[in-house]
Each structure stands twice: as structure tokens, then as C-alpha cells.
Amino acid sequence: LHAAYDPDNIFAKILRGEIPSVKVWEDDDVLVFMDVFPQSEGHVLIISKTSTARTMLEMEPEALAKVTAATQRTAKAIEKALKPEGFSVFQYNGDAGGQTVFHLHFHIVPRWSDRPMKG
Ligand code: 5GP
After folding, report:
1. In this protein, which residues make up the domain named HIT (predicted)?
2. Residue 1, in any domain of the structure
């Protein structure tokens, strides 16, 4: 849980443009992009562009506030665009917490009662 930030993690490479991503929203503070292995239609990830926190424990409150505000804005946009019946927001910390990419991120997974979540 308390290892050093790896500047070559996948999301750092996405932020540097070294590997491609399908961007949904970008400003000075945050990037919202499509998850490459979506658990449902419209599964997106929200990350900070300014913070190198691996987990929620490390993130500066100001940067975390920007990420959560962007998560809410994105959820509203998804609600309008895809009209899901519900949606799940989740965020994993540490190997044991289910985290696989160690640059803090939130997931939004749109949900429909007749479509079970994949993966
Ligand atoms: P977590 O760390 O929260 O368990 O999940 C990391 C998420 O990043 C997974 O949902 C996975 O599908 C996604 N992911 C892993 N590699 C890439 C990638 O190269 N591009 C994108 N867009 N998503 C990725």
C-alpha cells in the first residue's frame, strides 16, 4: 500500500501520450477515458493529471476533490447519453483492495438490470 509511485504505470503513459486512449474529457486537472476492458457499455475511468498519488491515502485533498467532481460531472453526462438504469462508482486501493494500476482512479460502470456486469 505504501510503495513509491511508478512513473511508467499504464495511466502515466496514457497521460504522456505514450500509449493511446479514448478520451472522453480532459482539462488541466483531470482526464476521463474509456476502460479498455469495459465491464459494461460506457465504462470510464477518471484520473488526476496533477497528482502522482497511487491511492486515496496519498492524494492531496484538493486533487481528490477535482477527481470526485469530475466523476460526478461524468456520471451526469453518462446518464444523459446512455440512459442507464443505474451506475456503479468504485475505486480500489492496494493489491489486496483489487487495484491493478497504481495511479489513483475512479471507475464509473453504467448498469442495466437485464445486462449483468462483465469481468
Ligand atoms: P483497477 O486498478 O481499478 O483494478 O483497474 C484498472 C482498470 O484499468 C481496469 O478496469 C482495466 O481494464 C483498465 N486498464 C488497464 N490497462 C488499460 C489501458 O491500457 N487502457 C485503458 N484505457 N484501460 C486500461
Report:
1. 10-118
2. no
Mean pLDDT of 95-113: 97
Give the model's confidence band at 108: pLDDT under 50 very low, under 70 low, under 90 confident, else very high. Answer: very high
In a domain, 5, yes or no: no
ipTM value: 0.98
Torsion sign, CA atoms 25, 23, 9, 73: positive
Whether 117 is covered by a domain: the verdict is: no
pTM of the predicted model as reported, rounded to 2 decimal places: 0.96
Burial bucket for residue 10 (CB in 10 Å: 0-12, 13-18, 19+): middle
Distance 108 CA to ligand 1 centre (A): 12
Q: How many independent structural domains does the chain possess?
A: 1
* Known catalytic membership, residue 105: yes
User: Rounded distance, CA 60 to CA 95, Å?
Assistant: 21
Atom of ligand 1 nearest to the CA of 39: 10
